[in-house]
């Protein structure tokens, strides 16, 4: 192998330093790839159970009706939506027939915020149907209960 002169060694060293200074950051490698993946998590079990109430005035007599307001209490930590309401009538006197009453429940999907009480979720009417053929005296002072549910 041939010996480099002092001048050649200096020139080669300066060129090497210049190459490192100019392109030192340019000497890199990288990997490219393709791929796919998934992630999973469990959602909330839902808004929980709300407590529904039917609120109406007493004092019904045959042929009369009263407005009914439906409300919900939500003691859970997340909001929920109450869907369509269903309502039915019962009484505390066997001879006071629930069939003599008609109740409606009009609602739209109503949001009930977390930790709230008395949120209105619908309205309706409770009517005491008047019978022209049956004595309805059994309903005097009877307790009428409207049971409300959500579907």
Draw up the topology in text:
Layout: H1 6-23, E1 51-55, E2 65-74, E3 80-82, E4 85-91, E5 101-103, E6 110-112, E7 116-128, E8 144-150
Could you walk me through the main structural features you see in this protein, from its secondary elements to its overall organization?
The structure is a single chain. By secondary structure, the protein is mainly beta. Helices cover 12% and strands 34% of the residues. The chain has 1 helix and 8 strands. The chain has one helix at residues 6-23; strands spanning 51-55, 65-74, 80-82, 85-91, 101-103, 110-112, 116-128, 144-150. A 4-stranded antiparallel beta sheet has the order 1-2-7-5, with no helix packed on it. The radius of gyration is 40 Å and the shape is rod-shaped. The model has no long low-confidence stretch (mean pLDDT 82).
Task: Kindly summarize this structure in a few lines.
This protein is mainly beta. It is 12% helix and 34% strand. The protein is built from one helix and eight strands.
